[in-house]
Amino acid sequence: MVTSERSETPTSSHWARSSAGAAAAAIQEHYSIKGLPGGRPLRLKQKKSSKSMIPKGSSLRGALSYNDKMLHYDASLTAAEKAGLVEPPLKPLTAQEWERAKLLSDGRVDEICSICREKYRNPSQVILACSHTFHERCFLSYLRFADATIARCPVCRTEAHDWTTHDGGLNAWRSRSATRIQRCWRGHRVRVRVMEGLPPGSRLRRRYATQRLKATGRRIEKLGEARRAAVDKFLIDVERSSLESSRMLRESLAAFESFRSGVESTERGPPPVLLSGPASPSWLHEAVGKALERGDCECPICYDQLSTIEEVEAPRELARRAVTILSCSHLFHQKCLDSFESFRVFEKRFCPMCRQEYDREPWPL
């Protein structure tokens, strides 16, 4: 009787008892492959296992058939797991087991992904062996950032050894959306039909019209508030920009005044300006005085420095840096003013700064 019982035992247990050395070698190989303590030398213990349960890239096990999963499962088993010396990993689920898991998930009406808390509005949904569902992208991102050797469910923390695609959440969202649309349409039809049957001037008709007018007024008020906030924000930005421009202008003028006072002290007065002669117009004296009092140092068109004759060395540079004064006392480079006048639309000439008609005369600073 005992002999018959021994003959009925699995061959794996008989192999384990018959060869202790082979069993020890199989366990050592299992520890080495799985990366468990005791299988590798101390210097290599921190190296990650190459047979991780987490998929690489965007590949999902749901794209494989059951036979392909079983082939991959059998190839991943070690000799110790095949011999029954250690507990083997969980097998992939069959089609019947997946049907039960999907029915359990649909019974809970899972419409929201537990990771991103968004509804299943696209078909990229996966279901785990524990019947919990997630977005495909969310689940892969969770596995990538979890950085664990064994994939686990984010909700129940059970081992996620197998998963596949599922559209239960998408179907529930579509059904709920269709129900909402139908409810709104039926309500609109009933309200229109009831209003058509009421006599003009009735109390219920006036009440319905009052509610509609209030709703329309609230929408218009919200739209006006949004536009008012946008206009206020725009005006605040314009005011801030103008204040910043004024500050920069004041700083520039202060720096120019300090530079001008230093130059006048070294040269003992402003440089002489020859304005006498029959060709000098009557407005030139007053315009030069205003320009010197204002302290213009930049051309308003090109924003480049207005150089004096002493600062210009070559004759070509003198022609390019020639300065023109207008009857309104504004100063420009001669080339800049010529280019500005070439683009004029009207016959009259207007100053680019003050928009007044002007006469021009060459005058070096």
Question: What does this molecule look like?
Answer:
- This protein has 365 residues and is mainly alpha-helical.
- Among the domains are: 2-53 and 66-83, no CATH class; 209-260; 284-362, 2-Layer Sandwich (Herpes Virus-1).
- It contains 12 helices and 6 strands.
- Strands 2-1-3 form a 3-stranded antiparallel β-sheet. The protein has a 3-stranded antiparallel β-sheet with strand order 5-4-6.
- The longest helix is centred in the middle third of the chain and has 65 residues, at 203-267.
- The model is unreliable at 1-10, 38-59 and 268-279 (pLDDT under 50).
Rg, rounded, reads: 44 Å
CATH architecture field of the domain at 284-362? 2-Layer Sandwich
Largest sheet: 3 strands, antiparallel
Reading side by side through the largest sheet, how are the strands ordered? Answer: 2-1-3
Helix proportion of residues, in percent? 40-55%
Average pLDDT number: 74
CATH class value of the domain at 284-362:
Alpha Beta
CATH fold field value of the domain at 284-362:
Herpes Virus-1
Principal-axes shape call: elongated
Number of strands: 6
Report how far apart the termini are: 126 Å
* Amount of beta strand: 5-15%
Structural class: mainly alpha
Query: How many distinct helices?
Result: 12
GO molecular function, one term: zinc ion binding
Keywords: Metal-binding, Zinc, Zinc-finger
InterPro entries: IQ_motif_EF-hand-BS, RNF32, Znf_RING, Znf_RING/FYVE/PHD
Protein name: RING finger protein 24
